[in-house]
Amino acid sequence: MDQALKQRIRVRAYDIWNAVGRPDGESDQHWLMAEREVLAASLERVVRATSKKKAPRRKTPRQVRLAQYRNCKLA
Question: What predicted TM-score, i.e. pTM, was given to this entire model?
Answer without folding.
Answer: 0.62
